[in-house]
Design goal:
The protein is of the alpha/beta class and 134 residues long. The chain has one domain: Rossmann fold. It contains five helices and five strands. Helix 3 links the parallel strand 3 and strand 4. It is globular and about 40 Å long.
């Protein structure tokens, strides 16, 4: 049996972390953290396969954390999906211009979350195989 993919979930709302963990934990190893600083400490120790990132958080926004991740050569390959309560399509377009992999609105729909996580993990695996020449 293959090792479960690691999903880092960054959200300052513990209820959101609980819901997302409940949706994903049967298929993935989920690491819920409540701040950008904690996420960075986690990524110093291990590299997740995908990051679910809340945009609005105190201290460090998801956008700030995303920019740090993408500027780090060892982390920049990780797919990042923004989680947000924003309904504004201009904010969504702005996030895609930054280079995010995808965008999911809260409250999170379990079918959509599972489908997008699976899709971006598959894309990431294909990119890694292509880089290795397979």
């Amino acid at each position: 049996m293959s090792e479960l993919k690691k999903i880092l979930v960054v959200d300052d709302n513990s209820a959101n972390l609980t819901v997302i963990n409940g949706i994903l934990s049967s298929a993935y190893k989920v690491y819920p953290v409540d701040s950008g600083a904690t996420a960075l400490k986690f990524m110093e120790r291990q590299c997740p396969d995908l990051i679910l990132l809340d945009i609005e958080m105190p201290d460090m926004s998801g956008i700030e954390l995303f920019k740090i991740i993408k500027s780090n050569e060892g982390l920049s390959h990780i797919p990042v999906i923004f989680l947000t309560a924003y309904e504004d399509t201009e904010k969504e377009a702005s996030a895609y211009r930054l280079g995010i992999s995808d965008y999911i609105r809260k409250p999170v729909n379990d079918v959509i979350l599972l489908a997008k996580v699976k899709l971006h993990l598959e894309i990431s695996s294909l990119r890694a195989a292509k880089q290795k020449g397979y």
